[in-house]
Automatic annotation (TrEMBL):
SUPFAM superfamilies: 2Fe-2S ferredoxin-like, PDZ domain-like. One of its GO terms (molecular function) is 2 iron, 2 sulfur cluster binding. Residues 1-24 form the signal peptide. Residues 74-152 form the PDZ domain. Pfam families: Fer2 (PF00111). It comes from Ditylum brightwellii. This is PDZ domain-containing protein.
Amino acid sequence: MKAFVMLVLPIISFLFTFICRVKANYHASFVHTSPSLSREIRSMRKRVVDIDKSRKMAADKDESSASTFEWVKEGNLTKRTVQLTKPLGIVLEEIDAFDSTAGVIILEIDPKGNAAAAFRRGDADICLYDKILAVNNRDVEFSTFENVMDQIITSEENDVSLTLGRAPDTITVRWPNGVGVAAKPGDHFCDLAGLAKCKIPYGCTNGGCGTCEQSIVTDKGDQRYVRPCVSRVPKGLKFIDVNP
């Protein structure tokens, strides 16, 4: 019996030591990886929040776009003709997906494209959501997207003439990236900058810090400073040129 106990005790001692070491290593490993796991969890939560913010911004943009489409549908559009060089640097979209004859508008303007360059030079008055009324003097006001694109693509000339329609009583806001937005008095400058994809640095977002402050020059020749996070488009103007 004594010999048996003497044989078993070392084994029990070894197992006890082994279990303690494994447990200690487990806790050490857990303590070491916990901050990493916490960071990953925080990162995942941040991504979820960012996704929610993006969805909200997209919804707000869709709502804003929808109201702009309503301006176009109302008719009585002011007309202007512009000459643009191919490739035009614009993205077109049908106004109503359920009515192909409602017409086509300019959905996006590439800041690096020919349309934006012409607008920056003052050679063409072209804005987001302008309706395409004619291509090279051919009426396309109530044409389908395919027909408008066909008129542009098959044009033999390198320059394309576009007759554009814009909602009345709007104010043309030209951003530093060359993208124009047709605004109405009371529109937030920050919303217009988002539509134009013009990057503006923001800080407090309540007008206190001045991080987003921009210089504007109006068609009346006066210069003033606005803070897009809180400022709105004033009344009584036809054109606003925004400069950083």
